[in-house]
Design goal:
30% of the residues lie in helices and 24% in strands. The protein has 379 residues and is α/β, with parallel strands linked by helices. The chain folds into two domains: 3-111 and 254-328, FAD/NAD(P)-binding domain (3-Layer(bba) Sandwich); 118-250, FAD/NAD(P)-binding domain, CATH 3.50.50. The strands form seven sheets. Strands 5-2-1-9-19 form a five-stranded parallel β-sheet. The radius of gyration is 21 Å and the shape is globular. The structure holds flavin-adenine dinucleotide. Flavin-adenine dinucleotide (FAD) binds next to helix 1, strand 2 and helix 9.
């Protein structure tokens, strides 16, 4: 009997896992002793980090998308048929169309989703760039913006740990280039008592904010937005007026996770080194959908995917474990429209952002293009 690998989710991590397994299990796929099947939601693959550049007119929309079937190894059948229920006892995945897929190994790669609907008034009163529609609306609003109070409001959990800082610095440069910076005040809100969850990044951001005249409001857990009076209020009782509100909306995991009782909020309890679902030996969890308390980022998902590729192929080929995930994350950080820095860290080494430079900004732009090779497993 062929060993069946089912991958639920055809985004960044699911695609990298599938393509990597195809390379490592070439003979098994040829002989038919292994099959890999992917279930997804769309025929298009979206490069989400590129959304950051849409509001500033710095990327074409067409650069963000590829045909998922072209990004994916041709040996993996891809079905646009979302998983509706995962049964880890029976080892099956039931789909929205009514089909059932049995598996020997399951890879859960369903990611996370923005939930502006959780905060009263947020959908009506706020802009965001975390999906294409939101990023387009923000671009249109920025075109006409003539100065005023700008609030960058951060909610947790959210994917891409540094995107809130990046958009704040990019807004500042955008207003300067537009000639409206002297009529604009930027205030950044953060839910805990510093500017960023990663302490060294928070310390690094303080002088950067001071240098650019960016204000902050910490311990700001968003309670509601009033689109009529243009105010945002925190659970802590602070109300800020705004002319432009840019939010990083709160996130949850996907419905199939909660519907399958696999994890509260859609986050699957995952062992941080093996990336196995807690208590399981045949369900791997990768990317944003894990509950591991590290950054939800594409790079996290990529390094996790590489670990799963090695372990799953080693288990199938030799019946042994290959290696553990060490918590590695690497993120470029835009510090304006023409400068950037980067952070890398793992479970034992904290991040240490360096001085921004134009060179690092160019590296990030180059990576945005190289992503498509990376997703195919060629980089
Ligand atoms: C604006 C923005 C900027 C970012 N910038 C960066 C950055 O600079 N650096 C960085 O490292 N990361 C960045 N990220 C984060 C990065 O994009 C995510 O962390 C990464 O995509 C997570 O990969 P994933 O595979 O877990 O989830 P995704 O890539 O989101 O893939 C999950 C897939 O599962 C599918 N799915 C959901 N439910 C089901 C179901 N029931 N059945 C089948 N399929 C399903 C989804 O449709 C999706 O295709 C950014 C994200 C955004 C939004």
């Amino acid at each position: 009997m062929a060993k069946k690998i089912v991958i639920v989710g055809g985004g960044l991590s699911g695609t990298i896992v599938a393509n990597g397994l195809c390379r490592q299990l070439r003979e098994e796929l040829s002989s038919g002793s292994v099959t890999i099947t992917m279930l997804g939601t769309s025929d298009k693959h979206l490069y989400q980090p590129g959304l950051l550049y849409i509001p500033f007119g710095r990327i074409r929309e067409s650069e963000l998308f590829r045909d998922q079937r072209k990004v994916l190894d041709r040996r993996v059948p891809y079905f646009i048929d979302p998983a509706a229920h995962i049964d880890v006892e029976k080892k099956t995945v039931a789909t929205k169309s009514g089909k059932t897929y049995a598996y020997d190994f399951l890879v859960v790669a369903t990611g996370s989703r923005i939930r502006p609907d959780i905060i009263p008034g947020m959908e009506e009163g706020a802009h965001w760039f975390y999906d294409l529609d939101g990023a387009r609306k923000m671009r249109d609003t920025l075109q006409g913006f003539q100065g005023g109070k700008v609030v960058v409001n951060v909610n947790a959990p959210h994917k891409c740990p540094v995107a809130p800082l990046e958009v704040t610095f990019m807004l500042r440069d955008f207003f300067a280039a537009k000639g409206v910076l002297d009529k604009t005040e930027i205030t950044y809100t953060y839910p805990i008592g510093r500017l960023h969850a990663l302490e060294p990044v928070a310390h690094w951001a303080v002088p950067e904010f001071e240098k650019h005249g960016i204000k902050s409001e910490i311990f700001f857990n968003t309670k509601s937005v009033d689109a009529g009076s243009k105010t945002i209020t925190s659970e802590e009782g602070v109300t800020l007026p705004y002319d432009l509100l840019v939010t990083i909306p709160p996130h949850t995991g996907h419905q199939v996770i909660t519907d399958s009782d696999l994890g509260k909020g859609g986050w699957v309890p995952t062992e941080r080194n093996t990336l196995l679902r807690e208590g399981s030996s045949d369900v791997f969890v990768v990317g944003d959908t894990t509950n591991i308390p590290i950054s939800k980022a594409g790079s996290t998902a990529h390094f996790e995917a590489d670990t799963i590729i090695d372990n799953l192929s080693s288990l199938i080929k030799e019946g042994r474990w290959a290696r553990n995930y060490d918590g590695k994350v690497f993120c470029f950080v835009e510090t304006g429209l023409n400068s950037g820095t980067y952070v890398w860290f793992n479970y034992t080494t904290p991040p240490n952002p360096g001085p921004p430079s134009q060179m690092i900004h160019w590296f990030k732009l180059a990576y945005n293009r190289l992503y498509w090779l990376s997703a195919r497993g060629l980089l």
